[in-house]
From TrEMBL, chains A, B:
Organism: Devosia marina
UniProt domain DprA winged helix: residue ranges: 308-366
Top-rank taxon: Bacteria
GO BP field: DNA-mediated transformation
InterPro entries for the chain: DprA (IPR003488), DprA_WH (IPR041614), DrpA_SLOG (IPR057666), WH-like_DNA-bd_sf (IPR036388)
Entry protein name: DNA-protecting protein DprA
Amino acid sequence: MQAGRVTRDLTPAQRIAWLRLIRTENIGPVTFRQLLNRFGSAEAALEALPDISAKAGRPMQAISQARAEDEVAGLDRYGARLVGQGEPGYPEHLLQISGAPPLLTLAGGERLDWRRTVGIVGARNASSAGVKMTRVLAGDLGASGYSVVSGLARGIDAAAHRASLETGTIAVLAGGFDRIYPEENIPLAHDILDNGGALLTEMPLGWEPRSRDFPRRNRLVSGLSLGVVVVEAAKRSGSLITARLALEQNRDVFAVPGSPLDPRAEGGNLLIQQGARLVTSAADIIEVVSSADPARHALFEPEWQPDEAAEQNEPAPDDRSKLLQALSTTPVDVDELIAQTGIAPQAMQILLLELDIGGQIEWSSGQLVALRYS
Amino acid sequence: MQAGRVTRDLTPAQRIAWLRLIRTENIGPVTFRQLLNRFGSAEAALEALPDISAKAGRPMQAISQARAEDEVAGLDRYGARLVGQGEPGYPEHLLQISGAPPLLTLAGGERLDWRRTVGIVGARNASSAGVKMTRVLAGDLGASGYSVVSGLARGIDAAAHRASLETGTIAVLAGGFDRIYPEENIPLAHDILDNGGALLTEMPLGWEPRSRDFPRRNRLVSGLSLGVVVVEAAKRSGSLITARLALEQNRDVFAVPGSPLDPRAEGGNLLIQQGARLVTSAADIIEVVSSADPARHALFEPEWQPDEAAEQNEPAPDDRSKLLQALSTTPVDVDELIAQTGIAPQAMQILLLELDIGGQIEWSSGQLVALRYS
């Protein structure tokens, strides 16, 4: 852990309240943080939820205490634990990314180096040359003291984990802990835990990964890493999405080149043309990441601000209708909305939070907001 | 030819005088220019040569009129002509490089586009994938109106010429016109001329190329080109020398990537790591060179200044010994020599020219001068 960073354990009751809140429909990491900032605690936010969702025209409840306790008990059986943002065991690099999960489900990894980390991603239908290159890179990174992060997919991901089993490997799942995908990698997942590696996910127990969950998972692969290496990737592929996310998170992006005659080299070559660093050996990576500090270069401030909610200016009676009038399905900047409607900034924040929880708006790029297509 | 550039034909007598001067021992392109600047013409420089070389302690003669006329007659039999710097047929891009040859031996190429030119170089022991990539690049560049420049070597060079035979190709020789190397490419040389392409060299008729002549040739390949593409190259190879020369000449450098597991990709990958542009198609090259203008970006002023020699300050009687005292085998800046010895700049220039012709000094990086190891 970084010197000077304040961490504190959640109480069991707080952890259950956090879990209930984050597992509730329409509440993602950003809304979760806004709720905690406004109401001061997850418990208070849970109490307020029926009221503020009703204001947005769509009354809703958080998931029940019993369901949350069931998940905790279930995770226990898998040897997994929940770790909250701000707790000592929460991976520090993740604090620096936009939309970091408030709660992670985590197993193993107690003695891993979570700060010296390199992500390796690539094609599921990897060539034997790609697999060999991955083995060389992951093996040499491990031998140099770096933990290897990947997504437990077929091909390059699996090769990266296998080559770093003994030196430290971190697998990020797209689904629940009991829904490892692909099934053929379940034995590899066990090997990872048996060797002191880590498995983690932000998704609930029992969650079957859908296609949209993979890019979501990828932002954690890059977010956990100082830099991300793309080994083999087609021009449109999840690996390129990971590379883009890594850039947005201000991580170093590396790519292994290949012959232009090889379709599996297209993505990597394209990344290099766009500014990724060409990699031929682990030394090329270490030279760069050894001086990388994602905290210092972070584009985003740590999102979790565990201070008490400031006094709020409640919205005026007609503010909500004014705001709905001003919104459309075209994303618009919040500052522009404030200027147009004359709604006070604090009141605007409250109204948007309510509409968000009510499922009526969606955010893009942090500061742009639009009505949801219904 | 560039609008506004003044060109003029040499008279037959001037051409012979130029040839005698440049074919003389110790007189390279830079010394040639200094002599013309000082004496106003090659004829005058030839007359002065015995005297100034004697001053440097090593009396010498230019090659004879008869020998020069023999070369011209010999070139005639090969259908080749001599073209001088400043003449209309002299390739314009070459005017921008340091040490451009005063005289080129040239055959064919009358209807080539000498301004839209791309060099392609690479391994002699090319792989079939490398040859295929070269065919694709040279073919597509040709189809887009670019002339392809290369060195008529085995492997990549030959593939580049063959793929651009019909659209325009320029082969630069490392030896004399009658000493094409390797011999297996003599038929290709004939094909180039038969298809309107060009063969050129700065070396005398009958000159058998030695190993040091190949890098010398390579500076003309890059100098003739808007940009140079390296297709397959080992880590220490002539192709990398060409790339370095191209950078010094402010040309764009491109490299085709390859798997780090393939030794023939090492040079290209290294170049990309050092800043060369990664190339997967001719479009990647055209995008860059279509807006390149070597004249505008030239690091060097055109070297040939056909003005009359300015009045010279002759050196004082003891200046020569002062200068020889100050010189050593460690290269030193001319300005520093002037400051140390108190010799007037004009006199310094004359003395250095004499010592140069006398074979007593050598230049490095344009402005650094040292005693030759004897």
